[in-house]
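pipeline/complex-builder :: batch 7 item 3
reading input block
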Amino acid sequence: MTTAAIDTTILAILAPFAAAAVAPIATKVLKHNAAWLLALVPAFIFFHFAGFVAAVSEGQTFVISREWAPSYGINLSFFVDGLSTLFALLISGIGTFIILYAGGYLKGHPQQGRFFSFLFLFMGAMMGLVTGNNLITLFIFWELTSITSFLLIGFDHLRAASRRAALQALVVTGGGGLALLAGFVLIIGVTKEIEMSVLLQNPDIIKNSGWYLPIFLLVLGGAFTKSAQFPFHFWLPNAMEAPTPVSAFLHSATMVKAGVYLLMRMHPLLGDTALWTTVLPLFGGVTLLVGTLLAVRQTDLKLMLAYTTVASLGLLVMLVGTSVEKALEGAVLYLLAHSLFKGALFMVAGTVDHEAGTRDITRLGGLKGAMPVTFTAACLAAFSMCGFFPFIGFIAKEVLYEGTLEAGSGALLITATAVLGNALMLVIAAAVAIKPFLGAKVETPKHAHEGPVMLFAGPVVLSLTGLVAAVMTHATGTLFIGPMLSSITGQPAETELHLIPAHIAAPLFVSLGTFALGILLYFQLNRLRDLISGILTAIGWGPDKGFDQFVAGLVSLSNGVTRFVQGGKMQTYMTLTFVATAVAVLLPRYVTGGWPEVPAMPDYTFYEWGILFIAAIGLVAVLVAKTRLTAIVSLGIQGFAVALIFMLFGAPDLSFTQFMVETLSVVILALVMTRLNLNPRDHRPFGASVISAIIAAGVGIGMGLTLMAVTQQPFDSRLSDFFAEFSRTVAHGRNIVNVIIVDFRGFDTLGEISVVVLTGLCVLALIRVRTKPEDRLTPRAGTEARNKKLEARR
Amino acid sequence: MRTIIFRTVAPYLTALMVLFSIFVLLRGHNEPGGGFIGGLIAASALAIYGIACGVAPVRRAIVFHPMSISAFGLFLSALAGLPSLLLHQSYMTSQWISFPFFDVEVDLSTPMVFDIGVYLVVVGAIASIALALEERESD
């Protein structure tokens, strides 16, 4: 690799974001054929990272860094080693075919451009995640995957089920993301390091810090939610609401593998402790069994695959949790195999759905003749999933059994779990890949025929890759598996892979046992399905329901809190606000005793006294006014008097603004009064008025005293001197006030005008809300009136 | 409120006030004035027009929804800070261009663009509130 090539890595990682911007335009011009053009982007990324393979397999690692927010130590830095290279290759390689597939699958969809955009955004987030070196960078990309997957899962946003699934995925993975952020912040705080590559050089730094347990739990919180470990597994099958290209991408090599990636990445730092080797295999094993059992129960192709994804993730977590090198090697192999066959199978399921009109296996059969290419791809992928010879799944299974058998005290239990899980996965693989295609032809909603090349390119290439990777065992081992394994173990790892088992040993017999069990179970599939359904109905509650109950509980809790804090009575709000203001200005004076001195009689001219007198008259008029409207206008008298005082004492800008503000407040207050349909007179009992008067006096006196105290302090003229000196020379303006507003303090003003815009929006919303109850009384008339109004507004 | 005198005078008054508000806006850098005050004047001009002649003619006259004007102002103000980035200066560093126009030296600057943004924000937001309040159910 040349330096220039290494430098383009950032470009490669961020390229999907650029593609996301271009995609809608390209799709508008080229329609679905834009996919051919757009697929070049992930293909470019794939070949870029393929360039790293040789160097990485020799044990080199690369760190590419750009400054981002250097004052916080946050840099856009990326780490390329065995682990990230294989992930990057899987994401971009499968991504290329997903883009093509999406081109065919959503052909003619009005929002296809947007769909491509979301896919690319997600792809970019994933690339950043698996290569992120700086912990904060990694976290940002981690969160980006949550957000973009929300967009993807909820793509079909007109359906309530999609929206729910999207929200659920966001809440679960986003919640886990928060835990992860806390974990990362702890790591940064404890180790004073922020770059993963540096941390990995001192693998014991966290284990020896005394903060291991909280860090471990928080990181696990992130990884388990993302990788759908029991009991957080429920969001993954629900995410099947997304269009199939999304499922094929998210649930094969990307989103759900992010958690596994994180565990693998952190393995040198957190792994191989008693806690790690207990918790991970436990949760992984439970997830594996739950996933496969729930998969058997389904009859929908996509849901069956989704649950086996849950199961596969469980298997991976279980293997990583053993911290045995051979099992880790099995995990790496299985991860590769799973990405390939699951991506292919999802696409097959989508093609079947697309061409035959249903995904229900009980309504599918005999499609072999109609869809020969898809059938072949499905078989190849399913054989790999079953672990048949000579596919990559077979090698993975051999190695992982060898690993689980070495896994110390729990070896037998872990192996048994793996066998049962794998046997059930074989059942699903057979059901998904064979049942729709073989047997008697079943009448399907659509007349089934082979899909276009865009649809079958992905499954064919991915499933063939699973075969080629197995046939070229040695190359796969040295180029991909070995380097990735050494990243996970933290030390150079030797891999020796054989397609044909080198010696007849335990793993082979376990494999054969798995096949036998699987085939046995396949013939009992219907009975098994009924049994599991029966059990689930008997239990009647699951985390999915739990999620709904949790959300409903949260909503009613916040409702209760809001009702308690915000009673909805204007009078109470006003009273509380002003009492609090009075206390805030008076209490500190009382406690510190900092009362201002009584000022001497000022030496004013007669007209200055006159204006003050007018202001006082205005106030008296407010108090004696018979109607509210008169009071509001009278208050304006005092306001104009104050504006005149500003003018006389040399603040024309202030005076000018005061005039305008006063005018507009009177106008708007008057309008509000007429609109609220209040009684024009104030009919409160005398006691209530007295209380209001006391509060008003408290606030007024408090503010007055504060102002007096402030002006009696010695005046620090540094700022005004600065502005006076530089306003003309630096900012080219003689009006200091305006120069401060638009130049010296321009950033403050930007914030202030943002608030003005928001306030305008909020007031507008409030005014419109008021019309609602009337609408409810006379629905039709109200709606009509509102429509007319909306029209007028347009 | 809708007396004949008021209704006859209001359009002229509004036009004058809007003109004056722009004058106040542009002189702001050297004399009392500026975007905020100018915006308030223009907003009251629109409010007066609305009170006199009804809200619909005002909405027609300003073409865009007042909140859109307001949001565009915010956008313009935020944009005014960007040119300095091209010159590797920090955000919102002011940039000035001077050129003779007939016999007068005309100064154009990013703070002026910023101030125009402030003006639009204030006009839009206040006018939006005032017009929405003036709109009665019967309109």
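note: Chain A touches chain B through 46 residues (CB under 8 Å).
queue -> next item
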